[in-house]
Each structure stands twice: as C-alpha cells, then as structure tokens.
Amino acid sequence: MMTAGTTVQHARAPGKINVFLKVGAVMEDGYHDLATAYQAVSLFEEVRATTASDFSVEFSGSIDTSGLATGGSNLAIKAARALARTAGYRGGVHLEIEKNVPIAGGMGGGSADAAATLLACDALWGTSATKDELLAIAATLGADVPFSFTGGTAIGTGRGDQLSPALAKGKFQWVLALADFGMSTPGVYQELDRHRDRHAQDIFPAEHQPSVDANVLQALRAGDPHMLADVLHNDLQAPALHLAPGLGKVLQLGEQNGALAGILSGSGPTVAFLVADADSALELQVALSASRLKVVRATGPVHGARII
Ligand code: C5P
C-alpha cells in the first residue's frame, strides 16, 4: 500500500456526526469530559501530498475555501509537521486538499484533513508509523482527529479521543442543512459553561462521568433509524441555539418535512436530519432547498482514513 519514494500520495478521511453527545465537567487541561457516539459519514476530505522542501497547503472543492488559513495554524500543516518531528523526517510536503465537509460546521472537516494528512505523509515519506503511533499523534492535534482516522461507529470518552468501537448495522441516511456562517467550537463550550454557571442545578459535580445511553448503542446495533431518532441527543445544541437562534427554525422546518429527528452536528451550525429512507431524504432535501438552505445528503457509517 505504501511505497516510499513515490512523489504523490492520496488519502481520504470522513466527516462525522455525533449522534449522542453528553458534556461533563471541565477537566484540568481546560477540555470537557465527554461521552459521545460518533458516526463517520460519506462526506470525504481528499488530501494529495507531494514531496517538497517546506510545508504548504492549498484548498479546492465543492465549498468556499477562501477563508481558510494556509499557514502554520492550519491543522493539516500541524499534522504533517508533527509526523515529521516524530519520525525524524527532514523534508516537507505540499498538500492539496479537496474539501467536501462543511467548514466550521461541527462535522470534523479540519480533523479529517489532519487524519488524511497523517496517512498521506506517512506513505509519501515512507515513515512506516504504526496505526497506534499515528493515533497518538492524531490525539495531540484535536479531540476528533483519532475518530476521523478510525471511522465507522465509535464511542468517544475523555476529550472525545479515547475510542472504543461500537457495533452498527446497515446504513443510516442523513440530510444536512448547512449554514452560511461558521461557529467557534470553544465559543459554544463557553456558552454551555456560562449557562451552567447561571443555573446551579445544571452544574455537573466534579465526579460526574457522562456516559452514552444504552438505547443509543442498541439503536445503532439494530440499524433502526426510528429507534435512533428517539435517542439523538447533543448537550451543545442548547448553547449553540442560544448563540444562533435561527437554527431553531431550521430544526423545526426539517421535522415538519419528514425528518424522523434533527440534531445539531457537534458544536454546529450544521443541522443533521435523520430520515427513514432515500425517498424521505429526497423529499426533505427539496423542502429545505425551497427555503433557500444549502443541503447535502450523506450516509453513515463509512470507513475511516485510508490511502486511495
Ligand atoms: O480539540 P479541538 O480542537 O477539536 O477542540 C476545540 C475546542 O473545543 C477546545 O479548545 C475546547 O475549548 C473545546 N473542547 C472542550 N472539550 C472537549 C473537546 C473540545 O472543551 N472534549
């Protein structure tokens, strides 16, 4: 699969939906203790890595990428540099990233760039890192990066980076309503903290450990969208709606037009609607588009990062 000396390598990694997300207490490192169920979905970031003497990135794809950072703060560049450091590789890489996951949408697009970059650079440079080594680097880059690497369906705890695979049957169908603005993940977590500070009864005691509802695992195992629709949950939804109240109308619109349920994806602002089948997906897509929303469809679970 990986041939050292090849001058270009192409890797692909998926975006994700958190079908369940409970946020616990703030930990010492400033991150929140989480319990989440991730599902990788069929929107893929495509990363092509070419040998170069320094580190650079350019973007293309189905979405507007003009606002993205291309310097050292870009997560893909950070991923490449982290692997080079760990492996003792002295050269660089030029990355061409075709983006298909909404930007700053709560679907882990930046994390997918990082996961695919790790694989592509490993192959390009012939560093032969093990999967565990790449996962360890992934965890230093962001809470969702290890999941984009492994894909499928998984439970995430700790920051969201401690993964255990979960059984899932069949494919779930999603209709995604994209917003024309991005949301800051730290901003949404801070809004949740502010809300909990204001309402003392909502504060989690330090020892409280969030966990994934057993009904979520059962619905995923059964491959039953009706069951899953009943248990979709995201603690970040209320604070995100507080910051962007218009998302409430989007959720309502989807649920009035055939969605089994809607949920904010991660920290938003993408709203993910679970539908029963392809016909309802099409109907919902038409209804949301008629309200001038940008809509894409996806299915999950799908595989994690891989070399193409
Ligand atoms: O790791 P990542 O870059 O995705 O996280 C972005 C931000 O989201 C963190 O800096 C933190 O403010 C917040 N976060 C958190 N607890 C988590 C994951 C993310 O507070 N478990």
UniProtKB/TrEMBL annotation:
Gene label: ispE
Catalytic residues identified in the record: K16, D144
Domain GHMP kinase C-terminal: 217-290
Catalytic reaction equation(s): 4-CDP-2-C-methyl-D-erythritol + ATP = 4-CDP-2-C-methyl-D-erythritol 2-phosphate + ADP + H(+)
Descriptive protein name: 4-diphosphocytidyl-2-C-methyl-D-erythritol kinase
InterPro entries (UniProt xref): GHMP_kinase_C_dom (IPR013750), GHMP_kinase_C_sf (IPR036554), GHMP_kinase_N_dom (IPR006204), IspE (IPR004424), Ribosomal_Su5_D2-typ_SF (IPR020568), Ribsml_uS5_D2-typ_fold_subgr (IPR014721)
Function of the protein: Catalyzes the phosphorylation of the position 2 hydroxy group of 4-diphosphocytidyl-2C-methyl-D-erythritol.
Keyword DNA-binding: no
